[in-house]
Amino acid sequence: MLDYDKEADAYDATRGGEPRAAAAAGAVLGMVPADARRLLDVACGTGIVTRRLAATRPALRVTGADLTYGMARTASLRLPGAIVLADGRRLPFPDGAFDAVTSVWLLHLLDGPDDVRAVVAECARVLRPGGVYVTTVDKAAAHDVGSDIDAVLAPRPRRPAQDGHGAVVSYAVACGLDPVGETLFPGLGQGRSPRSTVADLRRGWFTRLPPGHPLVERFAAGLRALPDQDRPRPDPVFTVLAFRKTG
After folding, report:
1. 4-140+160-190+234-245: what fold?
2. 230-246 confidence digits (pLDDT tens)
3. Segment holding 103, helix H or strand E
4. Closest-CA residue to 124 (of 151, 155, 93, 145)
């Protein structure tokens, strides 16, 4: 797992920056009702998406929450006074406080099903009846775009996906959230090249291959043998689900 306090300063530049954030914010807001007035962005990270949610809908009061100090500090520079340091499993807000809750690129990071259930339950708790929860699912799968890079990396050890579409739907339904929509958006600027993937391997971005793991150099050699070392392969396409709280 990456240290997000240390990653905060360079995080956006290595993950598609503003184009990716714009695509994410557009997809999320397409799921948020026009009459929503309060939105909570759980695991807001650097606030690059959160800021766009607020700027695009001036009538929407947006609050961001993140567990790590480095991320929350960066986000607070983008949305002064609107960021709190908080664990998504124990949100510091009363029941029914928000018209919409979002969690973009969060659930795949959690340690296991119990943590995912806890986050979804908390997002449901702080939603008002009729409010909407919007979240990304199948994050890791989106990065497998069928490229030659994916073929080289196919045998690598993988962490079990915690944000599988079916599992997240089942957790949400158990919390009184009904599925109401699904959409896709591109991870602009995140297409991998062989050379950048070797660098990511050596930095430990692949969670089951920490730096120094004996398989790292084996996969690196396969990647270095590919053509067009600096040509990015296709961008990933991310899936977003929306749920409405019953009652």
Report:
1. Rossmann fold (3.40.50)
2. 999 999 999 999 999 99
3. strand 98-103
4. 93
